[in-house]
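Possible regression after last week's pipeline update?

I re-ran a chain I had predicted before the update to compare outputs. Posting the input and the new output here so someone can diff against the archived version. Not blocking, just want to make sure nothing changed silently.
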Amino acid sequence: MTPAQILSELKSDGDGHAYEAMNAAMDHPESVIPGLLGIVEEVLAEPGRFAQDADYIAHIRALLLLAQFREAKAFPLVQSFLYLPEDTQEELIGDLVSEGMPSLLASTCGGDAETLVALASDSVLDPMARAAAMDALLVLGFQGAVAWDRMLGCFEALSRVFETREKEEDAVAWAFLACCVADGHLLPLVPRVEEAFQRGWIDEDIITPGSLDESFRLNAGHLRRRFLRSHHLVEDAILDFQRLEDSFVPGTEFDEDDFVDEEDEDFEVPTITPEAVATVLARQGPRAATAGGPSRNSPCPCGSGKKFKRCCGN
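New output (post-update):
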């Protein structure tokens, strides 16, 4: 497939052809990256118009491919989705903010942990978007993209920002920070989190002191592996797309057995070719390194993993 054909198929509604296009893109990253960036930029230029087309998800495919290619130019574009109006954001990326955004941020930031701290600190953002930045920090630390001490320092800096705001800081954002402390076994931050619990700053519908203590009785390696099942550096855009598809396509019930389109039974599951991505990485080079009950955008207390507004709050 030519680059033009790949980009055209990525915009199509047929999953079988789109998978083939994603597969072809993996083998020719250099030639498709400008077009992939163009797809995302076009959506961000007119988000309202694209939000009206529920079937258009080319930007999702493009973002995942750019994440796989570690494309630095995609990082500010990924961030831009976090600042869209809530309704527009939901139409464009559904629950991808909580389900896939940590992977997108971690994979495109080039180790820029400080920018992730800035996102997590930004009270203008929805707590779920801020949580995505926090989870992206954990991804970087877990997968060695940044040194563990540096990652831990970023969380310490973030906790200090939250402490200076006292009750003005969103209790849901505090809860997500506590979740990261639990998932990452970030022992030096435990006293800060415990004090925040005592001061009533943390939304206990999301995490309680008891569940925090329980996490430290679990094996740290187990927690790390469990976390990385859903949040990780993107290594294969198709595999992540199929895992996340029901997060941004209304009414989709994903079945792993349905990966191959029925009309294209000869299509094989692709695997990433490191050699195909090596030229991209070499070209880029290293980069410098709300209180009360659950809010509509917080995780549903029932434990479904969905936003409250899309579950019990519906």
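Follow-up from reviewer: compared with the archived run. The two ends are 44 Å apart (CA to CA). Marking as no regression found.
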